[in-house]
Task: inverse folding
């Protein structure tokens, strides 16, 4: 069973020879290097996972802020309007950045990022926009009490909503076009 660096260091320091007296290629030195390397890999994997989840957490947080706590279940038209509002949420900032830019100058990095994000969300809306099912009252209640962490999303039901075909059930966490 792999151990963290702190556990290995503690175990080695209790031996007769101190950690400072280790030979470079000794077994204990190798154990320390392996444990340190494993901690680094676990930390990198954790950061990568949390970065991938962040866009979904931001999406749910936006819905939590904009939908009142006492909201009634949504119709399909209201869901479409909510998605459209979400996709166009950065339009004022894009317009401001365009107006501040001198004529003939390329767009700023921030403006490019916002436009790319808007384009990606529009494409997702065409194929199936992943979101909580606001047509169910228990999902709206769960959204109202959601505390902002990834594990708290497991108690909500999710759908993929498209412009043409409406909604279809989806899974949590989102995988492909589930």
Result:
């Amino acid at each position: 069973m792999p151990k963290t660096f702190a556990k290995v260091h503690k175990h080695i320091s209790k031996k007769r020879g101190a950690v400072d007296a280790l030979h470079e290629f000794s077994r204990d030195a190798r154990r320390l290097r392996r444990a340190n390397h494993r901690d680094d890999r676990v930390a990198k994997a954790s950061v990568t996972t949390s970065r991938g989840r962040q866009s979904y957490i931001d999406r749910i947080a936006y819905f939590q802020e904009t939908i009142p706590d006492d909201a009634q279940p949504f119709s399909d038209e209201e869901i479409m309007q909510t998605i459209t509002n979400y996709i166009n949420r950065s339009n004022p900032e894009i317009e401001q950045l365009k107006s501040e830019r001198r004529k003939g100058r390329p767009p700023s990095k921030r403006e490019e990022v916002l436009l790319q994000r808007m384009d990606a969300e529009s494409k997702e809306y065409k194929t199936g926009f992943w979101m909580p099912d606001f047509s169910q009252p228990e999902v709206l209640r769960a959204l109202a009490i959601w505390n902002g962490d990834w594990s708290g999303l497991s108690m909500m039901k999710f759908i993929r909503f498209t412009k043409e075909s409406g909604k279809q059930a989806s899974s949590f966490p989102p995988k492909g076009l589930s």
About this structure: Residues 1-53 form one domain. The helical segments are 5-13, 27-66, 76-87, 91-100, 109-127, 137-145. The chain has a mean pLDDT of 87.
